[in-house]
Structures are given as C-alpha cells and as structure tokens.
Amino acid sequence: MKNLYRYVVILFIFLVLTSCSLMDSAVEEKSDNKQVNVTLDKAIDGDTISVIYKGNKESVRFLLVDTPETAHPRLGIQPYGKEAKEFTKQLVEDADKLQLEFDIGQNRDKYGRLLAYVYADGEMVQKQLLKKGLARVAYIYDPNTRYVDVFTDIQKEAQKSGIGIWSVENYAQEDGFHKEVITEDSQEEVEKEQGKGCLIKGNITANDKIYHTPDSPWYKQTKAEKMFCTEKEAQAAGFRAPK
C-alpha cells in the first residue's frame, strides 16, 4: 500500500512539472513581441530558412510574405526567386544576431515548419524583402496578423515604384506569381531589373559561352544565363562576342 501511495505521489509531481514546462514553453513562443535568439543553419529560399532552435534543427517559414520559388517541383524557378533567396541569404548570413518572433496563433504550419517574423541584427527580414520588391504580402490567417498593415503599406510603396516583382504587370497576384504573363518585351525588363541595369546577356551553350550587347541582332531572342555591365566583364568571365 505504501508503495502504491508513493507511486501515485511521484506520478502526480511528474505530471505537474511536465504541465508547467509545457505552459512555460507556450508562453515563451507566443508572448507578444518577444524575440528568441536562434542560430542560423542555412537559407533555404527567399522566405524560408533553417535554424537551430532549442537544440533542434528547424525550418522557419516567414510569416505573412511569399517570395518566388527557386526549386519548386511543379513551379520550378520563378522570376526574382533567385534574387529573393540571395537577398535573404546575405541578410541572415551577415547578421551577428538572428532572432524569431512568434505571433499569438499557431506557430507551425501543416508541414511542421515554424512560423515566425525573422530579425537579422534587429531588422525584420520580411520588411526588407517587401521594400526591395522581392516578396508579396500573403498567407494572411487570423490571428497571426500582427504586422499585416505595416507590411501592406510597405508593399504599396514597392508597387508604386514598380520594382522587383512589381516591374511586370500582373506577375504578382493574390494567388501567387504568374510567369505566363511575361512576354518577350517584358522579359527584357525582367532581365534588366534582375541584372541591376547591366544589359549585356551571357548565353551558355554546350560548346561555348557567348555574350550579346543590346545592338546584337540576336539580342532579343537570347536567353540570358548571366548579365554583365561591360564587355570587358563578360570577357573576364570567359564569354566571347558573337562572330
């Protein structure tokens, strides 16, 4: 009888301690505006990174924004996807301090990824992506909407400026990114924007690497694998002018 009583007491204490631990964890993850320090593992995409959180490797999906894809099994590589990934990668890799902020609702999506606002040295990465025109406001699900109004205002400014994903009409829409709206003419604008104003197209074939300046007769139909600002830069990268 004494052994049974002792067992019940121990079990009760264990359950109380476990319950308190879970409650503390929930409060930590869902407390208003509290930022939690994490360690970067790697950048996965423009809106997803991998971090070490509470000793475990976790994927983190940025709350309330969406960037074009870079390795989607169905959508493939979308315009501005690489730029968004590189921008995010630079921000998080260069940061001395990386932090997550959870909203008040669910902190994981259906894939098990953490849902959070991400800070690199105190600057929210979502805001920076929106300012650069590399992300759209998306996946707005109550109650995780703490910064939706702020994000929407930033997006409106990027739309007015016509930068990044907003440089091509109807490319970024409420349901995602529409590569099919990009015509030959708008493709030039995309390549110009992606090349940051550098207009020389570098094309790579099975046997050669050729660059085309805007006055080349093959310029318009050339698919650019790389963009260069000067012919000298293209030549230094191993490209030659067309014969």
UniProtKB/TrEMBL annotation:
<dbReference type="InterPro" id="IPR016071">
    <property type="entry name" value="Staphylococal_nuclease_OB-fold"/>
</dbReference>
<dbReference type="GO" id="GO:0016787">
    <property type="term" value="F:hydrolase activity"/>
</dbReference>
<keyword id="KW-0540">Nuclease</keyword>
<protein>
    <submittedName>
        <fullName>Nuclease</fullName>
    </submittedName>
</protein>
<dbReference type="Pfam" id="PF00565">
    <property type="entry name" value="SNase"/>
</dbReference>
<keyword id="KW-0255">Endonuclease</keyword>
<dbReference type="GO" id="GO:0003676">
    <property type="term" value="F:nucleic acid binding"/>
</dbReference>
<feature type="domain" description="TNase-like">
    <location>
        <begin position="34"/>
        <end position="168"/>
    </location>
</feature>
<keyword id="KW-0378">Hydrolase</keyword>
<dbReference type="InterPro" id="IPR035437">
    <property type="entry name" value="SNase_OB-fold_sf"/>
</dbReference>
<dbReference type="GO" id="GO:0004519">
    <property type="term" value="F:endonuclease activity"/>
</dbReference>
<dbReference type="InterPro" id="IPR002071">
    <property type="entry name" value="Thermonucl_AS"/>
</dbReference>
